[in-house]
Amino acid sequence: MLSPELLHALRNLPLAAKQAAEGFLAGAHASRRHGVGMEFSQYRPYQPGDDLRRLDWRLAARSDRYYLRESEVDTSLTVHLLLDASASMNHRDANGLTKLDYGRLLLGALAYLAQHQGDAVGLTILSPSGLRHLPPRSDSRQLPRLYHALETADATGTFPDAATLAPLTARRQRALTVCVSDLYEEDGEINHLLKRLRAVSGDVLLLHLVADNELNFNYRGAVTLRDLETGQTLQIDADQQRAAYQAQLQAWLTDTAQAARRQGFDYHLLNTAAPLDGALREFLRKRAS
């Protein structure tokens, strides 16, 4: 599995998404229903009214009996991808990637996976200036549209307010919603949006991005920390504060995961220095459930 920095170094999101996703296509979900599909499953005896095109004529010639070939049918669904484009997603890790860079790669790979399984894929980029929304589609031109929107997305300001987000939950539409965010919020606005989406759309997969230098706090000596959304700064001695910081971070991550699962979300923590395979597996697992 290529590292995120190598994928990013390609400077080509369509190619990077394909490289990241292709190893997972063999794990595409097939339903338990049987019918006309891609993978052979079993034979069953012919019954009046069955489609004669599915008869195995070679087997009939050998056995003088008529059997139909049954295959497992891929079940398609609607996948709605959400990207948090608030300013905190500009946080940069030691590998040079921002959370936004990682989010672009991840959602590009997920879009590639979903479309190659026949799913209708849509994307909404969440920013305070408004929603950039591409409705779910399954045609061949959808991936280039999604890639262009991801490549041109900027992270600015704070997470959108309820009025800006209202169109997302105005209509009921069954979908698997995949949200990529660092979950930095002022008053539970991300959580509120996901609760509403679960109520009107169904399943929610929450992919929580945390940078490696946030998780391990591998700064040294006197450092100045700046809030990317408010501009506030804090001067600390990193060596003295490391233990307290990591204890508080782990407590927050534990509380966040527990709260998400209590509300019915599938929650997955992602280190932005790690390959994308964990998130891709989680997506395929959720898609198959």
TrEMBL record:
Pfam families attached to this UniProt entry: DUF58
InterPro entries associated with the record: DUF58, vWFA_dom_sf
Chain ranges of the DUF58 domain: 42-249
Domain of life: Bacteria
Entry protein name: DUF58 domain-containing protein
